[in-house]
Structure formats: C-alpha cells, structure tokens
Here is the input.
Amino acid sequence: MKKILAILSALLLTGCTAPRQVIRIWVAENTLDFTQRQAEIFMAEHPEYAAFTVVVEPVGEGDAANNMLTDVDSGADLYVFAQDQLARLASAGALVEVEASREERIRREHDPSAVEAASLGGVLYALPMTADNGYFLYYDKSVVSDPTRLEAILEDCRQAGKRFYMEINNGWYQPAFFFGAGAALRYDTDAEGRMIGMDCTYASSAGLRALRALIDLAAHPAFVNGSSASNATNMGALVSGVWDQAAVQSLLGENYAATALPTVAGWQLGGFSGCKLLGVKPQTDARKLAACDALAAWLTSGEVQLARYREPAIQWGPSHTLAQAETGDNLALSALRQQAAHATVQGQYPNEYWNLASALGDDILARRYVGATDEELMRVLVSFQTTAGSYVDAPSIGR
Here is the structure.
C-alpha cells in the first residue's frame, strides 16, 4: 500500500495528468505563427476547453482540400480551403454544418458573397475567412490615361511600348468577358455537394459578343497572355488579384494604381469572386466538436480577421464587414470591392470545365477564329455549351 501511495505521489510531483486531446489546424505556412498565437489567446480565455491542446500545421488551402478528400479521418479538425472545393468536401463528409446558434450572426456580419460561397443548397457548411479572391485591374498611371475602357488602355500601352496582361486561356479569368457581356455559366449543386444541373447561355448573342471581344484582344499588339506580376515585363496594365499587390507595387513604384475592370465595346467586364473558408471536420466527441466550433468562430471573427489583415506577411482581405471598413486605404482591396459589384460568386465547377475553358482560350490565342463568321463562331459556342452540360447527369442547357 505504501509503495502504491509513493508511486502516486511521485506521479503528482512530476505533473503527470491525463493526456489532453489534440485539435489540429491546417493553415497556409505564412499564417502559421499568427494562427498559433490566436489559438493560444483563445485557449487562455476559455478554460472550459483546457482538456484540449491546439496544434497548428502548415498545409495550404489546395493541399488541405486534397488531403481531406483522400482521407477524412486522418485530416485536420479545422482547415482552410478555397470556396470552389466546398461541394467536394461536403460530399466527402469532411465538413460539419455550421452550428445553428452561430449561423444567424455569420449571415448578418459577413460579406454576403462570402456567405453564399460557404453555402450549399441554403445550408452553411463553413465559416467565411476572407473575401479577397477576385481580380481587377492594376495599371501604370503614367501610361494609362483612362483605365475605364479596354480600348483606351490597349492604345495607351501600344503607344508607350508597354504591355497589357490578362490570362484568357484560364477558366478563372476568361468569364470576365462572357459574364460581362451577359452570358451565364453556373452549375447547380444540392446540399450534399452533388452537381444536379447547369445553366449556360454561352451559345447566344451575348456569348458571341464576348467571343469576338476576346478574339480582338488576342490580336492586339499590346496584349500578352498572362496573369502573374512576377513574370511580367514592361507592364502597362495587368488583370490579377490581391496576391500580386506587393509585386505590382515593386514594379510600378509611385505610378502604382488599381481599379475595377474596364468596359469593352461599352459593356462592363465581369468575372468571378471568391474567398477562403474555414471548415470543421465532423467529430464523434461532442465536447471536442464544441471546442472546434468555438475556436473556428474566433479565428474567423472580425477582430482576428482585422489582425490577420494588418499582419505584414499575410494581409488577407476580410470577409467580416466591420473589418472590411478598416481596409479602405488599401488600393488593391478597394479595387476588388469596386469590381465585386460586377462579379459572380464562383460556385462549384467540375474539373473538366477548367480544361474546356483552357482549350477555348488556346484556340483564340492560336488565332483559329480570326476572320470567322458569326455562324462559325456560334458553332464553337454551341459545342462549348453542349460539352459543359455533359459534365452533369441532367443539365438544363440554354433558356
């Protein structure tokens, strides 16, 4: 008996306690230290979750989604991902619905486009973390005198011997023309993430306007196909996003400027908008799920989003509207918000769509359609639309 008591006393003196459960979080490497600090703040303020230890690991958004889809059980408890992976993750059982008690507040306090991007069939599956994944126009204000019209931008660049960059063989940037001209391409998903239909009007007068504008752009001597500031040379203007802000500022210096996309032939270029989301994996332990839900709410709160934006190595654009109000001096985010009025929230698109859009852009860049008649171009658009519809079981093509 004395021996047992001695062992127990020794264990107490050495601090031996029941092992804590681990909550694993996957975030991009440049946000690792920041997230760890915020998790520590949360745990210090919530002693009710003292049975848990938070471990933050460097797994970026793309890898996080792929890893979760490969093996949900081995995946993190909380993870950041891009909104275009939502349907696949929900269908794979890698996301738990947002707790009902938090849903109303999220819908009230966050950018509506981010809330829409986090939802499937009206069900909120993730927490908005950013609203900064879109594109707009960067330009050299010593070169471009009128950034509101594409024709004027191209002419200014031509006369100055500068280049206008846009990646038109990319399914992310290409819809700027089709959506702006009035065409649509959207896939419908149910609450489980299955694609159940499609609405596409590319084979229309609007689609024809967009295709002709793309053909004309590709033929312009100032045009270069590309979207990376780091790879741009002699740049007069560039269509890209906030991720290129530092590189563009470095290239343009005091001539750095940014604004919404221009018009072409009198109509406004549109395009996609998107965001980063924070997902919570389903849990069998109700106490752990409660801790994960609360921690996720903290990491996506307005306070933390603003702190994340102000972190020099991160500067993600907030989805929380109060935090957004504090970023008004950021030219890139201001331009993004201007463009948001003309953008379409990127929903769920099948992998095949991106290849289809790239192939169309490649044909335009190869000048395959220069001199084509309206009838010939309409056949191209009908083929595109029919192929896009073949990626779902029961598409609703055209109107």
